[in-house]
Amino acid sequence: MVKSKLKTIILATSVTILAISLISFPQESVGASIRGLDMWWKIVFPSLLPFFIVSEMLIGFGVVKFVGVLLEPLMRPLFRVPGVGGFVWAMGMASGYPAGAKLTARLRQEEQLSKIEAERLVTFTNCSNPLFIFGAVSVGFFNNPKLGVILALAHYLGNLTVGIFMRFYGRDDSKSKESKSKKLFSLRTALRELHQTRIKDNRPIGKLLGDSVMSSIQTLLMIGGFIILFSVINQLLSNLHIIEFLASIVEVFLRFIQLPDAFSIPLISGLFEITLGNKLTSQVQDTTLMYQAIIASMILAFSGFSVQAQVASILAQTDINFKPFFIARIFHSMFAGLYTLLLWKPVYEKFNTTNETTNAIPVAFFEEQSVGILEMMKDTGPLLTILSLMVYILIYAKKTNKNEH
């Protein structure tokens, strides 16, 4: 009872301080809100919408079940999750935050995952997409395309390590299901499951497409709200000098691991929002690029409270516990920083030396493509966002009128 009352007081006080800060710093709040909105409608919405819609349709048509049957012999022994987890993992890496959480929650609602399996799966299927790592961070902030290689390797290897570690979470759960899954699955079995899943769904293609668009845009509207909110919170914390206070505490930790104190403010900012954290990290002077890469990797892996709030909101629609996901982000941050340190000389330094001493074409094609896609999305993203919202309004109005009649 005392704990509950204390929680109420803390939450009420925090919201009150936030409201007073908004009134006290109106210009800064509006500026931060516009920055968050700019990021959402130019980059986040147009990049995630196609993945969300296609994923919903793949689930409805039974393709995910088909892939799950084929990947069962790989995913079950390695991560102790069903084969459908392979689809979620791939889509999570391709589309970025918080696609893995949305797909995991969706499969949990379809009862293709148990509660423990869903909690395992969500811990390693939420990661930054290559477009953000190569285009925004390595080129946009550090002006160094080659840095994207080491950041991506550390990020995805760290995620893989988290997945292997989290296989021991809830190890007494669903032993009977795992024993049944030891048999080998054939292509015929996978095709039968695909057909049965489509028949069971039984929605016409038009309705399935409409439901996919509605669900995807509703999720993206929620994501946009969190991006704007945490952009404002981060700005207000800076105005109230709370970030500087927290940074003084982080400096003790940085000295312990022998990193420069100048990374304290970027780290604290990155705890709330990964974009600002990485931008500030790239601007730190009087330090080596390796140290900057380590901090950037840690920020990318932790993903920031903004992304974590998005994941928590999605998981709240199911019985999936958020706590394992949060703990996994801490471990992912540690692993990503460690992998950056271990791979720096054998990968980054050797790669740069090789390119300087030979006439070989550098493997920076993917980085250049990422930058090109990012610039194209900044130009065309707002138009796609507006058109998608108009389609959403039309579908929603049609659905409402149909329910009324």
Quick structural summary:
This protein is mainly α and 405 residues long. It is built from 18 helices and no strands.
Helix content: over 70%
- Estimate the global geometry from the Cα principal axes: globular
* SSE topology string: HHHHHHHHHHHHHHHHHH
Summed over residues and divided by their number, the pLDDT gives a mean of 84
The separation of the N and C termini measures 48 Å
- Nearest-angstrom radius of gyration? 22 Å
SS strand fraction: under 5%
Protein name: Sporulation integral membrane protein YlbJ
InterPro entries: Gate_dom, Spore_IM_YlbJ
Keywords: Membrane, Transmembrane, Transmembrane helix
Pfam families: Gate
Report on this structure.
The protein is mainly alpha-helical and 405 residues long. It has one domain (39-404). Helix content is 82%, strand content 0%. The protein contains 18 helices and no strands. The protein has helices at residues 2-24, 26-61, 63-79, 84-95, 99-109, 115-124, 130-141, 147-166, 175-180, 187-201, 205-239, 242-256, 264-272, 274-282, 289-302, 304-315, 323-357, 365-404. Helix 3 (63-79) crosses helix 4 (84-95) and helix 7 packs across helix 18. The longest helix has 40 residues, at 365-404. The radius of gyration is 22 Å and the shape is globular. Mean pLDDT is 84; it is low at 357-363.
